[in-house]
Design goal:
The protein is of the alpha+beta class. The protein folds into two domains: 148 residues, no CATH class; 46 residues. 42% of the residues lie in helices and 16% in strands. The chain is built from eight helices and eight strands; from the N terminus they run αβααββββαβααββαα. The strands form three sheets. It has a four-stranded mixed beta sheet, with helices on both faces. Strand 3 and strand 4 form a beta hairpin. Helix 2 crosses helix 6. The longest helix has 33 residues. The radius of gyration is 22 Å and the shape is globular.
């Protein structure tokens, strides 16, 4: 009789057969420390307040026995994805003691500068939300954990390359991209103005005025 495996172990065994290797990042790893730094931000107070446990899992592509190799460790609709987050089922949570898992493409993310890695982690955490009832009381699962849900992105840019090639800036794809870039430029300008104002206020403290 074969060795009994937990549902989570069986799931990862299945995935390993798909030419991928999964590695759980230990909490004393530098990358997990960086993740924790992001998690401690005010935006994610509810996640820390209700002790939501999140695992980091690195995914890498490995050649199969027949020499075939997948192009990306994580992809959606054929496009590479740097990371994704998923909720852990109650059954697997009891066995693995995690509420959610952030999986990332190690080939991509390992080469990210620190600030880009933090931005990636923050993006994934923005998908995760603690659920509350109409009275503002946190909802819980049958095993007493805070109930969670995944929320979609604020915006998405999708489209067809053939349409862009044919219509250029008149295509809905590039129009959507232009709107996002305009919004990003506005936000970055506001941030720059705020930093300049803080710097100016700090400098004024050391100036004598007659």
């Amino acid at each position: 009789m074969g060795q009994w495996k937990t549902p989570l172990e069986r799931w990862y065994t299945y995935l390993e057969k798909q030419m991928k290797e999964y590695v759980l990042i230990p909490q004393d790893h530098q990358l997990y420390s960086l993740f924790t730094e992001v998690l401690q931000q005010d935006e994610f107070t509810n996640l820390t307040k209700y002790e939501v446990k999140i695992a980091l899992v690195a995914i890498s592509v490995v050649p199969s026995e027949n020499g075939m190799t997948m192009e990306y460790a994580i992809s959606k609709e054929g496009n590479p994805v740097a990371a994704q987050i998923r909720l852990v089922t109650q059954r697997d949570r009891v066995l693995a003691n995690y509420d959610a898992v952030i999986e990332y493409d190690s080939k991509l993310v390992d080469d990210f500068p620190e600030i880009k890695t933090k931005a990636l982690f923050e993006h994934e955490l923005c998908h995760l939300e603690v659920q509350f009832d109409k009275d503002g009381v946190v909802k819980t699962t049958v095993d007493g954990r805070a109930a969670l849900k995944l929320i979609p992105d604020d915006f998405r840019i999708t489209g067809f390359r053939s349409v862009i090639q044919k219509y250029g800036f008149d295509s809905v794809e590039l129009s959507s991209l232009a709107e996002v870039l305009d919004e990003a430029e506005r936000v970055m300008k506001e941030k720059s103005d705020e930093e300049a104002e803080k710097s100016s206020s700090s400098d004024d403290g050391g100036v004598l005025v007659s």
